[in-house]
């Protein structure tokens, strides 16, 4: 028996009959049979020609060599080659065997191709490192060099045993890839394994093996308050803590041993650890692992007489291998870990593409806002404003949405702030005003038999300063034909507080025109009614927080404070000639209380969510009937 490739082997080829060149045969015979005398010299009485010395030189060379014919069959091998590749009990030798089988020259396509080319005399040289199983059981590392023999239909195999060198290399490699403190795989090895896991997929067709899920999962963990342990108890105790955490993580990983082995535990640096689950089965598997890890770390640590309790935050990502990269996976895990910390630490959090998109898209959104207005990517929805006394439809609030080609339907909270920052709110605000007024006029014209509904349009602070709002409104009303009393403008308190000069004159001019001014989200800012009474404000929109305060637990007494405040606010507003609209009315109990308190109008899911314009047309048609 001779050495076996440690990788898979293919069926042995049969050497082509007559495939050997005569001179090769001769050399082969010489090499397997040629022996020098005990003295190491050729027999006395003759001085062999230098050429003839080649045979004994080949046979006795300490460098392992073999000659292979063009058919790939070993036709000669020296003692060193036999010693290297054959077991002690091996009587068959190497001659007659296929070299590529013996030396594993066919397991990877590139080597197999190059080897074939050399045999055909079309390539100069080939060098490869191979790991083989020696018949005595141990592994050997060989450097195999294949070079053509000039003027012969054969190639020469030179083999050097680099096992010792590789052993040293492996040990160095191990040191390079492991953390000396915890002995866990380090960042480099972890990244290597993640990359390998991602390269393994996708498994399709014949590449599929049983249990392959084509998915990967990752827990990225950071010890909460590790710095405090280091600072208060000293670095040696901090180090002990890291070692103890590493042990508990390894224990968790061992217990979570799955089809593809235990998750890989690594220390990525500082107090950051990671667990990699190859071939994960889904989010639940990762959630279970994260839970087990948090449980395991909850037990206090006994560190050189110090009892230390810590918690950890974990970012968890689980996804398909297809379409992801090491960078994307690690970034997602990083972001998720940050969320776990931000959400209060001592917890695990799943990667949420929505939440991530929010973070990622801020910049993208802001850069595409302006062109989006021109491309007509915005749309308005309208939410009914209902008379509390009789439930009748009095008006609608126009609420803008962005039909983003990439991110889908975006709510205004995602982009109004950005639009204010970069000034595109002026252009967008004009579009909203024009669209809402045109729509309100259409309802008025199309439903003459019912009292016309007014439209309430949100105006951002920057619109007050950066554009001529009065001129815009006047022009829009003129163009659409909407009577000014059917337009209400919603401004937040800060837009009108301390107002002097231009914004105040604008408010006054709008009010003089007959347009109603409402203070939006009232109660979240200064809430200075006395001041507001001096401005041309006709409506207060009470912030949803007040109404939410009404939502008492079942059976428990209602939170009276909010009710008292709201009641006082409503009375005061009424005395100042201001009407009150309650936002976020979601339940009939809230509506009942608001009605008792004297609120004029209500808006909220109890009545209707924001809807498309034609739904409002439907409501108007129904009112007539
Ligand atoms: P807002 O002016 O206070 O509008 C009311 C918000 O409360 C709307 O959210 C509406 O969908 C939501 N809402 C209505 N009823 C309920 C309810 O019963 N419960 C709860 N929880 N929420 C309810 P939306 O449409 O996301 O608008 C958010 C904010 O975006 C608006 O708050 C407004 O400040 C701003 N916005 C919307 N459209 C425009 C616009 O055209 N221009 C400007 N400058 N801002 C706008
Ligand atoms: Mg509003
Ligand atoms: Mg509001």
In short:
The chain has 625 residues and is an alpha/beta fold.
Structure in words:
There is one protein chain. This protein has 625 residues and is an alpha/beta fold. It has three domains: 61-166, 2-Layer Sandwich (Beta-Lactamase), CATH 3.30.450.20; 187-204 and 230-351, 2-Layer Sandwich (Alpha-Beta Plaits); 363-617, EAL domain (TIM Barrel, Alpha-Beta Barrel), CATH 3.20.20. The protein is built from 23 helices and 22 strands. The strands form four sheets. It has an eight-stranded mixed barrel with strand order 14-15-17-18-19-20-21-22, surrounded by four helices. A six-stranded antiparallel sheet has the order 1-4-5-6-2-3. β21 (579-582), α22 (588-597) and β22 form a beta-alpha-beta unit. α8 packs antiparallel against α9 (235-255). The longest helix has 22 residues, at 353-374. It is elongated, with a radius of gyration of 41 Å. It starts with a strand and ends with a helix. The model is unreliable at 7-42 and 203-208 (pLDDT under 50). The structure holds ligand C2E and magnesium ion (MG) (2 copies). One magnesium ion is lined by residues 397, 458, 490, 520.
């Amino acid at each position: 028996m001779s050495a076996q490739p440690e990788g898979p082997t293919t069926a042995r080829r049969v050497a082509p009959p007559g495939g050997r060149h005569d001179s090769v045969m001769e050399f082969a015979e010489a090499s397997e049979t040629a022996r020098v005398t005990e003295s190491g010299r050729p027999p006395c009485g003759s001085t062999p020609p230098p050429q003839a010395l080649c045979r004994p030189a080949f046979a006795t060379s300490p460098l392992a060599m073999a000659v292979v014919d063009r058919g790939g069959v070993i036709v000669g091998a020296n003692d060193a080659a036999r010693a290297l590749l054959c077991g002690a009990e091996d009587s068959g030798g190497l001659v007659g065997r296929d070299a590529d089988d013996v030396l594993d020259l066919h397991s990877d396509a590139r080597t197999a191709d190059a080897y074939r080319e050399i045999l055909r005399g079309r390539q100069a040289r080939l060098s490869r490192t191979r790991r083989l199983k020696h018949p005595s059981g141990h592994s050997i590392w060989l450097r195999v060099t294949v070079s053509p023999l000039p003027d012969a239909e054969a190639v020469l195999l030179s083999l050097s045993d680099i096992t010792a060198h590789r052993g040293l290399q492996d040990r160095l490699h191990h040191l390079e890839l492991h953390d000396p403190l915890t002995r866990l795989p380090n960042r480099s090895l972890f990244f290597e394994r993640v990359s390998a896991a991602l390269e393994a997929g996708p498994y399709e067709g014949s590449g599929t093996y049983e249990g392959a899920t084509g998915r990967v999962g990752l827990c990225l963990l950071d010890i909460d308050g590790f710095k405090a342990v280091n600072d208060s108890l000293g670095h040696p105790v901090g180090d002990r803590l890291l070692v103890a955490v590493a042990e508990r993580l390894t224990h968790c990983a061992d217990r979570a041993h799955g089809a593809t082995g235990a998750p890989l535990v690594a220390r990525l640096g500082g107090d950051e650890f990671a667990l990699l689950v190859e071939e994960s089965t889904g989010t639940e598997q990762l959630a279970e692992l994260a839970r087990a890890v948090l449980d395991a770390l909850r037990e206090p640590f006994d560190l050189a007489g110090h009892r230390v309790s810590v918690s950890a935050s974990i970012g968890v990502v689980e996804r398909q291998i297809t379409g992801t990269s090491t960078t994307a996976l690690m970034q997602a895990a990083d972001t998720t870990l940050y969320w776990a910390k931000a959400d209060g630490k001592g917890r695990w959090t799943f990667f949420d593409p929505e939440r991530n998109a929010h973070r990622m898209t801020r910049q993208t959104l802001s850069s595409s806002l302006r062109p989006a207005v021109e491309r007509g990517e915005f749309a308005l929805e309208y939410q009914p404003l209902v008379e509390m006394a009789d439930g009748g439809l009095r008006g609608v609030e126009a609420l803008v949405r962005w039909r983003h080609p990439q991110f889908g339907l975006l709510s205004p909270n995602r982009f109004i702030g950005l639009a204010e920052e970069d000034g595109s709110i002026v252009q967008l605000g004009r579009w909203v005003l024009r669209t809402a007024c045109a729509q309100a006029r259409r309802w008025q014209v199309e439903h003459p038999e019912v009292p016309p509904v007014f439209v309430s349009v949100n105006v951002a602070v920057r619109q007050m300063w950066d554009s001529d709002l009065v001129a815009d409104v006047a022009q829009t009303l003129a163009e659409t034909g909407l009577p000014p009393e059917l337009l209400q403008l919603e401004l937040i308190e800060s837009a009108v507080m301390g107002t002097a000069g231009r914004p105040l004159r604008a408010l006054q001019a709008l009010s003089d025109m007959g347009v109603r001014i409402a203070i939006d989200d009232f109660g979240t800012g200064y809430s200075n009614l006395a001041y507001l009474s001096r401005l041309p404000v006709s409506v207060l929109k009470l912030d949803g927080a007040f109404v939410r305060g009404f939502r008492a637990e079942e059976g428990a007494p209602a939170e009276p404070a909010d009710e008292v405040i709201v009641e006082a606010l409503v009375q005061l507003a009424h005395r100042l000639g201001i009407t009150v609209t309650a936002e976020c009315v979601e339940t009939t109990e809230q509506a009942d209380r608001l009605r008792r308190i004297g609120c004029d109008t209500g808006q909220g899911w109890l009545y209707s969510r924001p809807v498309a314009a034609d739904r409002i047309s439907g409501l108007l048609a129904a009112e007539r009937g």
